[in-house]
Amino acid sequence: MKDVQFILKQNSQEKNILEDAKLFQYRIEDIKSRMKFWESRQNDYINFCTDRKICPDATGLEVSSSVKNIMLNILQEFDLDRPSSSSIEHYSSYITRQNFRIRNLLLLLGQFYSHLEWSSSSYNQAIVPNFFDLRKQSGKIVNYDRWESFMIADMEDELTKLYQLNSNYSLLLTSSGMAAYATINNFIIRHLSSDDEIVIPVPIYHEAEALLSAIPGIKLLRLNTTDTDKIISSIDHKTKAIYLTPITNDEALRFVDIDYLIQKISFINQEFFIVVDGTMSGGLIRPEQLIHSNNYSSILYFESGNKYQQFEDTAMKGIVIVPSSLREEFVSIRRELGTILYDRVAVSLPYSISFEELKLKMSRFAHNALFISNSINTNRDLQAFCRINYPLDPCHPDYNVAQKYLREQLGGVVTLSFYESYYYQRNILDKFIENLIDQCQSKSVPFSKGDSYGFSIPRIHIGGSRSDKPFLRLCVGNRSIEEVKVFTSCLVEALQECQKHKI
Predict the structure, then answer these.
(1) Phi and psi for 240 in degrees, rounded to 5?
(2) 416: which of 117, 164, 294, 472 fits an S-S bond (Cβ 3.0–4.6 Å)?
(3) In Å, how far from its chain's centre is CA 102?
(4) What is the pLDDT of residue 153?
(5) Residue closest to 414 by CA, chosen among 451, 448, 365
C-alpha cells in the first residue's frame, strides 16, 4: 500500500467524473438489457396464451405497458440531463437526479414483472393463466417461491461469476444479511454437540451473536484480539467453529488479517467450520480462495448484499457461500426457514454486477474514507478532542496489516471516537448529528442520518445496542472528491462547535 498522501494526490474531480459516467453506464446498460429480457418473456406469454386459447391477464399487460412507457421517459431524461454549470453544487445535484432515475428504473422493472407473475404459479391450466414466466410451465422446479425459482437461480449464477467461485463452492441468495446468517446458524446448530467450543476472536455483528449465544450447551470463547498467533493457539480439539469478520462493525473498527489467518488454519489437522461475515469489506476479501482443497475445515461465508452492491436501497438481499458438497443441505434449511430471496424483491435489485464495477465503486468508498479520516486526524484543532477510526489511517492499530490489502477491500465505513466520556451519550450524539445536518443543509451537501450503509451520499448512524456504549458510525458515500471535501468541511465545523460549546 502506498503512502496516504500519495494515494490522496492520485485522485481528482476530473477522474471521478469519468468514473461516475462509467458507473452509470454499467447500471443503465443492465436495466435496458433486462427490459428487453422481460419484454421477450411477455411476448412469449402472450403467444402461449393465444396458442392455448387461454385468456392473458389484460389488466396486468396494460399496467406493464404503462410502466414501460414511464421507464422509456425516464431513460430519455437520463440521456439528456447534464449539470447546469461547472459548480460542485450543480454537479452534486446532477448526480442525485441520475441516481434517483436509476433507482426508480429498478423499482419500475419490478413493477413490470410483478403485475403478471405469481408466487405459486400453475403448471398447467384451462382458460385462466396463473403464471407469467413460461419456464414455470415446464415442471422442472416446484412453482412455490419459498422453495426455489428460476429468477433466483439466474441471480445466483451471476453472483457466482462476480465472486469468481470455482466448482468447489456454491452461492445461495437469501432475503437479507441476517437471513443469510440465520441459515448458517441453523446449519451450525445441527452439527454441534454438548461442550463444543466456538472461537470468536473479535466482536461479531450483535444480532448474529445473539443467535449464537442462545444455543444451549456450548462454550463461546471470546478472545478480543486480532493477533493471528493467539487466535490459532486458541483452537483445540473442542473447537467446532471459528467466527471471523475482516472488519469489526463496532467503534474500534479492528481489522483481521483473514488471508494469513486462513492460510494458517489450513495446516490444522482437524474438522471445524470457519464462519466468515464479509459484509464490511463489500465481498472483495475472498476466504474460500485461500483454504487448501484437502483441508479438513469448511468455509461458511455470508454477507448482507444490500450494502455496497445495492443501488440506493431498492431492496434487501443476503449472500451465503458454502462448499458445493453442502449445497443441498443449505437449500433445504433455507426452504424450511423461508429465508430465500423472493422474486418480487429480487427483480428490483441491480443485476449483472461485474467485478470491475464493484471494484471501481469500492475503491471510491475507500478513497473517500481515507480522505475524511486523514482530514480529521491531522487537524490540529481536533487532535485532543476526537479521532476517526479507519484501518488505512496510519493511526489505526491494525494499519500495518491493512496495508497488505487492496484499498477497495477496506470498505467505506469509519467510526468517530471522542477522548471524553461525556460525548458517549445518545442525546449528545443526536445533537451533534442535528448540527452536522444543519451545516450540510447550509452548504447544499447531501447527507443523511439512518441505519445501514453503502449509499451514495454520506450517512451517519449511532451504533451500539441500547445496552452498549453508543458510538458514531459514518459511511462516507461514493460521491466525487470535491463533494467529499465540502462534506468534510461541514464535519470539521460541526466537531469544532461540539468541542467549543460541549453541546
Answers:
(1) -105, -25
(2) 472
(3) 18
(4) 97
(5) 365
Per DSSP bridges, beta strands 448-449 and 169-174 are: unpaired
Residues 109 and 114: their CA atoms lie apart, in Å, by 9
β-partners of residue 275 are 243, 300
Domain ranges of the chain: 4-137, 150-346, 355-501
Which grid coordinates are listed for 487? 462534506
The set of long-range contacts for 123-127, using a CB threshold of 8 Å and a minimum separation of 24, is 125/54, 126/54, 127/54, 127/55
What CATH code is assigned to 355-501?
3.90.1150.10
Phi first, then psi: give them for residue 454, nearest 5 degrees: 100, 5
For 218-233, write each residue's pLDDT tens digit.
Answer: 999 999 999 999 999 9
Length reported for the chain: 503
* Residue whose C-alpha cell is 453506464: 25
The one-letter code for the residue type at 114 is: S
Helix (H, G, I), strand (E, B) or coil at 41: helix
Q: Which residues are CB-neighbours of 310 under 8 A, at least 6 positions away?
A: 349, 350, 454, 455
Q: Report the 10 Å Cβ neighbour count for 397.
A: 14
| Segment 45-69, tens digit of pLDDT | 999 999 999 999 999 999 999 999 9
Alpha carbons 187 and 174: distance in angstroms, whole number: 15
How far apart CA 439 and CA 67 sit, in angstroms, is 39
Contact by Cβ (8 Å): 57, 118: no
**Would you state the pLDDT for residue 501?**
81
pTM here is: 0.95
The overall longest dimension of the chain from CA atoms, in Å, is 78
Q: Which residues contact 172 (CB under 8 A, 6 or more apart)?
A: 156, 183, 319, 320, 321, 322, 327, 330, 331, 334
Q: Which amino acid, residue 313?
A: D
Fold held by 150-346: Aspartate Aminotransferase; domain 2 (3.40.640)
CA–CA dist 317, 306 (Å, integer): 5
* Whether residue 1 has pLDDT greater than 60: no
Q: What is the pLDDT of residue 2?
A: 59
What is d(CA 315, CA 295) in angstroms, rounded to the nearest whole number? Answer: 37
Cβ-proximal residues to 6 (8 Å cutoff; 6+ apart), any chain: none
> What's the rounded Cα separation, in Å, for the pair 487 and 368?
11
3-class DSSP state for residue 302?
strand
